[in-house]
TrEMBL record, chain A:
Taxonomic classification: Eukaryota, Metazoa, Ecdysozoa, Nematoda, Chromadorea
SUPFAM superfamilies in the cross-refs: POZ domain (SSF54695), Skp1 dimerisation domain-like (SSF81382)
Top-level lineage group: Eukaryota
Biological source species: Pristionchus mayeri
SKP1 component dimerisation domain ranges (all copies): 118-165
Keywords, comma-separated and alphabetical: Ubl conjugation pathway
Residue ranges of every copy of the SKP1 component POZ domain listed in the record: 2-70
InterPro entries, alphabetized: SKP1, SKP1-like, SKP1-like_dim_sf, SKP1/BTB/POZ_sf, Skp1_comp_dimer, Skp1_comp_POZ
Protein name: Skp1-related protein
A GO biological process held by the record: ubiquitin-dependent protein catabolic process
Family under the similarity heading: Belongs to the SKP1 family.
From TrEMBL, chain B:
Biased composition (Polar residues): 1-10
Limits of the F-box domain: 89-118
CDD domains: F-box_SF (cd09917)
Gene3D superfamilies: 1.20.1280.50
Provenance organism: Pristionchus mayeri
Source organism, top-level taxon: Eukaryota
InterPro entries per the UniProt record, alphabetical: F-box-like_dom_sf, F-box_dom
Protein name: F-box domain-containing protein
Region (Disordered): 1-25
Length: 167, 120
């Protein structure tokens, strides 16, 4: 059975029921609209509106879901000794995300968060963390397109406090 | 306190001259956009003529194409200049940071106040 998803720019995507269920948000909406796998009429007569996702981003989300529809649920490792939560990004996922420019990656992450697709969300957050790794503060600011609102005095104070990290 | 009228005259003359000069200042970005749009318009008109859309109709369609492209370019520019973290709630930013070691996170504190607060 298929489910119809409608994006913010009014594009309709017809996806397999299994793919639609990969999103917790879509699952909840289907339940609320009494749409079930065994009731074709309910699936045909309804469509799920997704006002926070654009057509371009939705196409990428579906591509990811198609690849991962048969995956077993992954267990996220808890904080390791160095204070981080590790997530292994598979080779296919690395390849899938490598050509997305940073702004597009942020949009995709926003969609994964809104749709509640944990695997995709973790893949992107790990990819962004890897991109930040090794960069200086001004390079990070440039990457995120943010203006530094810290004064020179504040920066000096922070540097003093975190000097141990730079050794 | 009043300033001598001659000084006022000099100032306004200087201002006038500055304003006249500023009319002649060429903004390279605007010039390059103008050139790009005129190239697109030329190509659109040529292509429209090939498929038989000429005269007033051709001009109108070319105008529509150009305005759509302009709108798209403006959107791309806005997207480029938007703080990308604004769309992210604190939880998302913290999830990204949690994937990094304490040492790796050190430069985040110097990036901006929000990152500093979320990181520590």
């Amino acid at each position: 059975p298929n489910v119809k998803l409608v994006t913010s720019d009014n594009e309709e995507f017809v996806v397999d029921f299994r793919i639609a269920k990969m999103s917790v948000t879509v699952s909840r909406l289907m339940e609320a609209m009494n749409m079930s796998e065994t009731d074709d009429a309910s699936l045909l007569s309804n469509s799920i509106p997704l006002p926070n996702v654009t057509k371009a981003v939705m196409a990428r989300v579906i591509e990811w879901c198609e690849k991962h529809k048969n995956d077993e649920p992954k267990e996220e490792k808890e904080n390791d000794k160095r204070g981080r939560t590790t997530h292994v990004v598979s080779d296919w996922d690395k390849e899938f995300l490598k050509n997305d420019e940073f702004g597009r990656l942020c949009q995709l992450m926003g969609a994964a968060n809104y749709l509640e697709i944990k695997g995709l969300f973790n893949d992107i957050s790990q990819t962004i963390a890897n991109m930040i790794h090794g960069k200086k503060s001004d390079e990070i600011a440039e990457m995120f397109n943010i203006h530094c609102d810290l004064t020179e005095a504040e920066k000096k104070e922070i540097r003093k406090k975190t000097a141990w990290c730079e050794d | 306190m009043f300033y001598p009228s001659s000084s006022h005259n000099v100032d306004s003359a200087a201002l006038e001259s500055e304003s006249l000069n500023s009319d002649h200042v060429i903004d390279p970005e605007m010039e390059s956009e103008k050139r790009l749009m005129s190239e697109i318009r030329e190509k659109a008109e040529k292509r429209l003529a090939e498929i038989g859309v000429t005269g007033v109709n051709g001009e109108a369609v070319a105008e529509i194409i150009c305005s759509l492209i302009k709108e798209h370019l403006r959107k791309v520019e806005t997207e480029r200049n938007t703080d990308r973290t604004l769309a992210f709630p604190d939880e998302i930013v913290m999830t990204i940071f949690s994937k990094m070691t304490t040492e790796e996170r050190a430069p985040l504190g110097l990036t901006c106040k929000r990152f500093r607060e979320l990181n520590f």
